[in-house]
Amino acid sequence: MAVTDAQNPLLGETTCGTLLQKLQEIWDEVGESDEDRDKMLIQIEQECLDVYKKKVEQATKSRAQLLEALSDARIELARLLSALGEKCFAGFPEKASGTIKEQLAAIAPILEQLWEQKAERVKEFSDVQTQIQKICGEIAGNLNINDNPTVDDADLSLKKLDEYHAQLQELQKEKSDRLHKVLEFVSCVHDLCAVLGMDFFSTVTDVHPSLNDSTGMQSISNDTLARLAKTVLALKEEKKQRLHKLQELANQLMDLWNLMDTPMEERKLFDHVTRNMLASVDEVTVPKALALDLIEQAEVEVERLDLLKASRMKEIAFKKQAELEEIYAHAHVEIAPDVAREKIMALIDSGNVEPAELLADMDNQISRAKEEGLSRKEILDKVEKWMSACEEESWLEDYNRDENRYNASRGAHLNLKRAEKARILVNKIPALVDTLVAKTRAWEEDRGIQFAYDGVPLLAMLDEYAMLRQEREEEKQRMRDQKKFHEQQSTEQEASFGSRPSPARQVSTKKVAGSRANGGANGTPSRRLSLNAHQNGSRSATKDGRRDNRLSGPAGPVNYVSISKDDAASHVSGTDTATASP
Questions:
Q1: Percentages helix, strand, coil for the chain, rounded to the nearest 5?
Q2: pLDDT at position 508, please?
Q3: What secondary structure, in 3-state letters, does 163-229 show?
Q4: Long-range contacts of 78-83 (CB under 8 A, 24+ apart)
Q5: Binning pLDDT at 50, 70 and 90, where does residue 217 land?
Q6: Gap between the Cα atoms of 492 and 503, Å rounded
Q7: Dist. CA 96–CA 80, nearest whole Å
Q8: What percent of the chain is predicted at pLDDT more than 70?
Q9: CA geometry: angle at 254 spanning 253 and 259, to 5°?
Q10: Cα–Cα distances in Å, from 258 out to 246, 251, 267?
Q11: Distance between CA 453 and CA 525 in Å, rounded?
Q12: Helix H segments across 261-291?
């Protein structure tokens, strides 16, 4: 074998055969015995065997290491696939094939790729968990969370990552809702502080320092939301109380201004107070509309006006008394104003009554007087119609008595139209009187008191008017009969003695003028009825004069005075003279 190797021309390098050949040449030259040569060859063969054994052992050990590395690689591959939630890796065969090194060469890039994928997945998990931890901390009220979350690398599957993402989305939505609530509360606090004139920043900072706009993160914890809600409720209650207080002060100011006739220039100084008199809590949005200094200013003004009112108490009381008298005068209710004013003076001078109580009592009297005037209004309106109809009746009597009423003088056509309307109105007087009597009796039965018109019982006035109207009709009938009788006498005289002028016609004219001056000869009622038949004693000239004036309250039909029997006879006599003349 060695000779063959030595003779091999293809071997250009030193081989075992060439070395053995060289060794034999040396032995031949030295003259080594065959025994020594065999020993030497045996030794060489043993040494060669030892080297092979050593190499085999090394190879075996290397193979074992490669198998262990392959096993570890396969285990790592399985672990990575499990952690990443993958069943297998695309392109990698499930069954082993090829040499160990080929298998290791095939699995190595897969592991590298999976490690990179794991690192990216860990980063994704870390980011999601960091955000979840941060939001949870914000909800819990812990804004200073700096610890990085621990990622469980045993489960890095996409399913687990999706669960974390879903949790993150829910937390983000909750955070958004909470942040929206916080912003609503903060905005409400801002508006309320503006209306109340309070410092907004100090108010929200007391709730939580992060609510200040200068900070980058705002607390959305349950505690912050609860404290914000409590702050808003407290501010709303404060706004409600201040508005109520301000409205009370505004009402007091208005009452005092009206009471003392305060000029508009002074009232305008407190427009910011009175403009919210009727406003609701939600309608008040003007900044500083309910500031404490504004309320204090209104309180000071009310105190000042109260002091001023006390000093002007008599003037104010007399003003209310004048208002009361005006109401009663308009309602034609007779009162004793002088006595009332003396009583007011005595009460104020004595100091036994509080000014506010006195004014309140007078306000009650004014309210009762208005109610009484309202209950009398319908009857008083009909009384005015009745008196106006009586005035037209009186004018119609005078118009019918005028012998020149049909002459073509200036304004004759207007008088003619008025006479036509007056006749229609006069025909309605009986029905008007009946209605007035019925309503007056119903009013008296309802209230149990007598209906007086400027101190005179209205039913008595109506009864007397009806009686006098009847007497007037009877008197007219007598005058017509008497005139007919005198005309017949005059006709007989003319037939016996002839016609001659009558000297009595001038006297007749004077009588007619006198009767017009008296205003009662025609039987038409006047503004002041004489009620001596119904009253005990006569009334004073002052009261009669006041009732004669229609503006201060007429008390009876127009142009009527009582006609005694002597006056009626005199009027009839004068008429007879006038009618007897041919």
A1: 70, 0, 25
A2: 36
A3: HHHHHHHHHHHHHHHHHHHHHHHHHHHHHHHHHHCCCHHHHHHHHCHHHCCCCCCCCCCHHHHHHHH
A4: 80/111, 80/114, 80/115, 80/117, 80/118, 81/114, 83/118, 83/153, 83/154, 83/155, 83/156, 83/157
A5: low
A6: 18
A7: 18
A8: 79
A9: 100
A10: 18, 11, 10
A11: 15
A12: 264-268, 271-274
Segment 406-410 mean pLDDT: 72
Q: What is the mean pLDDT of residues 64-83?
A: 85
User: What 3-state DSSP class applies to 453?
Assistant: strand
Identity of residue 380: L
Lookup: tokens for 232: 């808003």
**What average pLDDT score do residues 255-268 get?**
84
In this predicted structure, which of 91-95, 317-321, 402-406 has the lowest mean pLDDT?
91-95
Q: Which of the residue ranges 136-145, 429-438, 475-484 would you say has the lowest mean pLDDT? A: 136-145
CB 101, CB 63: distance < 8 Å: no
Token duo for residue 190? 């801002």
d(CA 493, CA 500): 10
User: What is the Cα 381 distance to its own chain's centre?
Assistant: 42
What is the per-residue pLDDT across 440-476, written as a single tens digit (0 to 9) for each?
999 999 989 999 998 899 999 999 988 988 888 888 8
DSSP string, 530-552: --TTTSSSPPPHHHHHHHHSTTT
Token pair listed for 340: 């009332």
| Token pair 């009595």: residue | 504
Write out the two tokens for 537: 């004693």
Asked if 6 and 18 touch (Cβ cutoff 8 Å), the reply is yes
Buried b or exposed e, range 420-445, using 16+ CB within 10 angstroms: eebeebbeebeebbeebeeebeebee
Cα separation, 170 vs 159, in Å, equals: 17
Q: Classify strands 452-453 and 456-457 as parallel, antiparallel or unpaired.
A: antiparallel
With the CA atoms of 166, 169, 173 and 179 taken in that order, what torsion angle do they form, in degrees rounded to the nearest 10? Answer: 140
Residues near 527 by Cβ (< 8 Å), separated by ≥ 6?
A: 387, 547, 548, 550, 554, 555, 556, 557, 558, 559, 560
List beta partners, residue 453: 456
Q: At what angle do helices 355-401 and 313-330 cross, to 10 degrees?
A: 30
Q: Determine phi and psi for 50, rounding to 5 degrees.
A: -60, -40
Q: Is the pLDDT of residue 579 over 50?
A: no
